[in-house]
């Protein structure tokens, strides 16, 4: 019994190989042509707070006392800024971890919960119901702080060091491990 060669001759594939190589070369050339020449200027055009950059300043009003808060990231103690909403189940679930962290780290860090102006009444009731031990505030400039921090979903948390530099941005529900990692980064 003889074995027959059922595969096609390699020369039959040469036109396809040539076409593939040509497509790859043209694609690479197109990517090279469309690439911005000065990448650093492209990055400067991006908005929003980025890890390694200064946290935006904002004005808010404490929910329980009504006192104004002028948060300036320069010269503060390390701060955890947590953007949340009363109607958000993951936000409610992470509050005990934030409360425990505030108790544990005492005066070494601040934790600040920020809610939208439209959510201030339900958030005030929730703050009282859960006996939240850290500051909760609403933006005084409408929802400008949410735009400045590019909040697209709740909860979103920023870990800001004593120099006002964002060390970590976490989108989604916090757990003890994420919270501990973020706090360790801002205490360095």
Descriptive overview:
The protein has about 190 residues and is α/β, with parallel strands linked by helices. About 40% of the residues lie in helices and about 20% in strands. The protein contains 6 helices and 7 strands; from the N terminus they run ααβββαβαβαββα. It has helices at about 15-35, 40-45, 90-105, 120-130, 145-150, 175-185, and strands at about 60, 70, 80-85, 110-115, 135-140, 155-160, 165-170. It has a 7-stranded mixed β-sheet. Strand 6 (about 155-160) and strand 7 (about 165-170) form a beta hairpin. It starts with 13 loop residues before the first helix and ends with a helix. The model is unreliable at about 40-45 (pLDDT under 50).
Principal-axes shape call: elongated
Rg, alpha carbons: 26 Å
Number of strands: 7
Helix content: 25-40%
Average pLDDT number? 82
Number of helices: 6
Uncertain segments: 38-47
Secondary-structure element sequence?
HHEEEHEHEHEEH
Between the first and last Cα atoms, what is the distance in angstroms? Answer: 76 Å
Strand order of the largest sheet: 2-1-5-4-3-6-7
Structural class: alpha/beta
Largest sheet: 7 strands, mixed
* Fraction of residues in β-strands: 15-25%
